Amino acid sequence: MDIKQLQTFITVAKLLNFREAGEELNYSQSSVSDHIRNLEKELGTKLFERLGKKVFLNESGKKLISLAEKMIQDEKEIQGLFNKNEKISGLLRIGAAETLSVFWLPPILKEYRIIYPDVKVTLRMADCAEFPKMLSHNMIDVAFSLHDQSQHEYISQINIFKDSTVFIAAPDHPLVNLKRIKIHELENHSFILPEAECCYRVELEELLKEHSIKIDTIMELSSLEAIKQCVKIGLGISLLPKIAVQREINKGELAILTIENCDISICAKMIYHKQKWISPPLNALKNMICTNNKEEEHKIS
């Protein structure tokens, strides 16, 4: 049943004049007549008595008036549930790479929760390669990834920030005493690396292959914290995002190895499905991150 037809019916019933009803609703008189005619046809009954130029509400019309008013009120209430001016509430499901979950996302979520306390947030850590599938299966609403997902036509991608990676070692590692280290000096050293799908590990392996350098990968770990602990006790060297090791470097628990001609960076991205409805909680998060990015760019410039 068409809400516009019901609104026209109520207005005609109030004014008992098709022309005046059209003026109030900003419709032509013929449109008003069409609305009433189509509504009567759908209901299978006349709603008005027409005596010359005068219009009267008949018994069927009187029965309909209260229900029609209720339906219009219900429609307004439904629209109000999703009114952008209303308090934002609901569920927001986030997926994120471990680096971003641990070292970047927490203050963002803290700010978000302060502004939008009625939104329930769930966070799932996963490998970046899993996010496109998770989005396409509606397992999450948004993901924060370190992988470039632009090859997926159904993914929208927003660059958030760039960060460098650093080679790290225990403070007493023999390479730490060298101010500048040629990449060939990494040959045959023990390495502790993240899993093979990790984007910066892939770049490292391509770089080593380009220079025909062989390293001894003694461990492959999925946990950044596990990698850092193994490096701390001297089991080997690793390559990790600087954001993930800055605290340990500042405390002297880890040391940076300065490798010549080795510039491997990461780029954090916000990704979501192009056909996904941008719910108020998701739109609020998106706007917050984009605003923060613009503020950071302004500080830098």
UniProtKB/TrEMBL annotation:
The keyword Transcription regulation applies. Keywords: DNA-binding, Transcription, Transcription regulation. It comes from Clostridium kluyveri. Residues 1-58 form the HTH lysR-type domain. Pfam families: HTH_1, LysR_substrate. The keyword DNA-binding applies. This is LysR family transcriptional regulator. GO terms for molecular function: DNA-binding transcription factor activity; transcription cis-regulatory region binding. Belongs to the LysR transcriptional regulatory family. SUPFAM superfamilies: Periplasmic binding protein-like II (SSF53850), Winged helix' DNA-binding domain (SSF46785).
